[in-house]
User: Fold UDP-N-acetylmuramyl-tripeptide synthetase from Arthrobacter subterraneus.
Amino acid sequence: MSTNEQSGSAAPMRPAVVVPRTMEEVLSALPRHLAAVHHVSGAPDGGAQPTITGLTMDSRQVRPGDLYVAVPGTGRHGADFTAQAVAAGAAAVLTDDAGTALAAPALSGSGLPLYRASPVRDYVGPLASIVFDSQPADGRPILFGVTGTNGKTTTTYFVNALAAALGKSTGLIGTIEIRAGETVIPSILTTPESPEVHGILALMRERGVDAAAMEVSSHAIEYRRVDGVRFDVAGFTNLTQDHLDLHGSMEEYFAAKAALFRPERTERAVVIIDDSWGRRLAAEAGVPTLTLSVAGAAEADWTVREVRRDGLGNTFTLAGPGGAQLALRCGLPGNFNVANAALAAVMILASGFGIADVQRAVDEHDPFTTQVPGRMQLIGESPAAIVDFAHNPDALALTLDSVRIEDSDSRVLVVFGATGQRDVSKRPVMGATAARRADVVIITDDDPHDEDEAGIRAGVLQGARAARDAEGLDCEILEVFPRAEAINRAVSLARRQDVVLIAGRGHEVWQEVKGVNLPLDDRVELAAALTRHGFSVRSGNRIES
Ligand SMILES: CC(=O)N[C@H]1[C@@H](OP(=O)(O)OP(=O)(O)OC[C@H]2O[C@@H](n3ccc(=O)[nH]c3=O)[C@H](O)[C@@H]2O)O[C@H](CO)[C@@H](O)[C@@H]1O[C@H](C)C(=O)N[C@@H](C)C(=O)N[C@H](CCC(=O)O)C(=O)O
Ligand SMILES: Nc1ncnc2c1ncn2[C@@H]1O[C@H](COP(=O)(O)OP(=O)(O)OP(=O)(O)O)[C@@H](O)[C@H]1O
Assistant:
């Protein structure tokens, strides 16, 4: 990973220069639909107006001159941390009704002004946008937002790779990392809280970034993390069951995603309509929408055709309105990556790039061979040695199906485990899924958390053996631990024409065992095992620890 002074810390990115504004100037720029913010106590009447040069909701991130916005959390209130914010140099505090009483003692005698607004979360995004001046009218960077259950990370990398191929400098906000020009920090959330989002967007502008891609999780929409952000193009991949602990039902999960596709949030949209949620979204989106189908839906504006296997990847044609056509190649295995690449291409077209320029950029730079850390990441080519984030039965099935080379004597060897303290019922299903698709199934540890590792493995093994015995499957099932040894065993059993898939942990660099983070990076272990057994590691591989 290319790093800078902020790497490895959770310190949010911000622009180097922020125009100082008085609190009055900041409040007067708020959108009209928001009710007035009330001054509760502290300076303004007669005293000096506080000058604001930053904003945060986290007392641990306060820098001198910040407006500290104290919001209620699930278990505690940000106002409980007012003293910490004041000590760090906050210039003013904004909170809600409940927060004013909590914040007041820490402010007494400080002379710092306290403001009140409810619900205070409604104000955070718009205020951060004003304070950091993150999205002025000149439209730079062009902002792409990607949402959906699967494929967000990969699609954002593909959007950026294509934008870069078109000669644009790029920025990224997502699960793996946040990138603004040369500055890169590892991510904590898929979509950061809104003060960080606006700070990052402002830094991107400052660094001259032309185009930025951002993953928008459903949590982000629910928790208002993209308030005050305006996308040029929003893209939708798919919707399958997930995160119902937060959303309660698929209907509410869909509603959270659909909220991104409204005129106040995005100029236009690109929606894959290969599931019923995508079709509904395309019908209900309140903005100009291009539809895309990989599964051959005739009514789609853009369709993927002539998908042909090309090594582990695929070539395909993207056909659009008026006979428009693009000839594309996706180097990452899997039909789902064809969908991700096609979505990225249509999003770029929707933002205004011409089809001839896009074709030229693709021909010259092959952007969809870009490496996405831990997502179908090809560590070696002979045998094909892949690390993928598939960590549930559906993703494991899709991934195993996509790496099998039909009509050859190539075997598939898979290494995986199941996470501790999560959905116990999926363990045997994952075992059976692998036994049905792989020639050698090596069951090992994932993140056990506080659970007993042997017990987790037993659940997966039971499913694999039951499927093999009941269905007469011709696969070898092994239990090997620890995980690094399992990876080594898989490589030791592989021949050059085989495929070795290490599934589950993707780009993670720690294994969480009983509250301790033990360093473990599947990609590093796989590369070491390949070398140990006389195979080569793919050059230019992106393995960062
Ligand atoms: C469920 C959820 O999203 N919770 C988020 C939420 O936590 P919370 O409401 O419990 O906040 P809290 O910790 O009680 O703190 C309340 C307030 O006090 C502040 N505080 C707290 C402590 C302190 O010392 N000083 C301080 O100022 C906090 O910044 C916060 O503003 O606000 C916190 C501060 O921003 C987030 O870190 C936290 O994300 C947690 C870590 C999380 O795991 N979120 C996941 C579920 C999430 O958002 N995931 C999605 C992706 C999902 C996917 O697609 O896989 C994502 O976008 O990452
Ligand atoms: N379009 C897709 N449809 C279905 N599965 C996909 C798709 N794209 C990727 N996957 C699978 O999901 C895994 C995660 O992919 P990716 O990280 O791009 O998605 P994501 O939406 O960002 O998920 P997460 O937020 O969990 O990282 C991949 O490793 C692959 O196994």
